Amino acid sequence: MKVSIGKIAKELGVSRVTLRRWEAAGKIKSERTPKGHRRYDLLKILGAFPRTQICHKNTIAYARVSSHDQKNDLVRQVSVLESFCAANGWTYEIIQDLGSGLNYHKRGLRKLIQSICSGKIDRLILTHKDRLLRFGAELIFSLCEQFGIEVVIINKTESSTFEDDLVQDVLEIITVFSARLYGARSRKNQKLLEALKEAAKTI
User: Pick from 33, 100, 114, 24: which is nearest to 67 by CA?
Assistant: First the structure.
């Protein structure tokens, strides 16, 4: 029985990246369709890799919002990630962060990077690319590629406008620097942020 790479990945509980790595190492073989798609012999591979011998790695789903007033969005992100992972039959862990996308020292982000470098995860799931970082997400994706970790972005097709991205980036930058200047909870800082949000609505 010849099946697609997606089907065999689901049967074995590993990512497509892992299957391609096994194939490159000569552990499994595939045939190509006239259009160049991989097809695997399901019975042969299941015989070569009994489920009890497969080292199942974990899936990490990462959710982040910038501020406390976005906690409802954080709950929504987690719900989407849990449903997506469960639907695919993956063993998963949710990592949540509350902080700016410009902050590279968030506890959850540090934990994610440590997990990637430890080789203990097989895939990373995000609702949107910018949930990881506002700038520099490509560095994390490159790190995943080096360790053979599949990155799945659920809402790839949902794209905001250039103006929306610019407003959000400027707000995050000012939030970070004003918090350092006045203190994150100071009244002066809160008034500044409220004024900026009101100004952003008119753009």
Answer: 100
Walk across the sheet containing 121-126 and list its strands.
92-98, 58-65, 121-126, 150-153
Among candidate residues 4, 15, 30, 66, the one labeled active-site is 66
What are 134's two structure tokens?
Answer: 């506002």
- 14-21 — which CB contacts under 8 Å span 24+ positions? 14/54, 14/56, 14/57, 14/122, 15/122, 15/123, 15/149, 15/150, 16/150, 17/122, 17/123, 17/148, 17/149, 17/150, 18/122, 18/148, 18/150, 21/148
Residue 64, H or E segment: strand 58-65
Mean of all residue pLDDT scores within the chain: 76
57-69 burial: b if 16+ Cβ within 10 Å, else e: bebbbbbbbbeee
Sorted by sequence, the CB contacts under 8 Å of residue 45 that are 6+ apart come out as 8, 12, 28
* Residue the block writes with tokens 């902080």: 99
- DSSP secondary structure letter of residue 135: S
Q: Token pair for residue 6?
A: 């997606």
pLDDT grade, residue 146 (50/70/90)? Answer: confident
Q: What is the CA angle 176-137-198, rounded to 5?
A: 40
Instruction: Say whether 79 is catalytic.
Output: no
Q: What's the pLDDT score for residue 195? A: 65
Phi, psi at residue 37, to the nearest 5°? -80, 145
- The pair of three-digit structure tokens given for residue 143, joined into one six-digit string: 């790190």
Sequence-separated (6 or more) residues with CB below 8 Å from residue 75: none
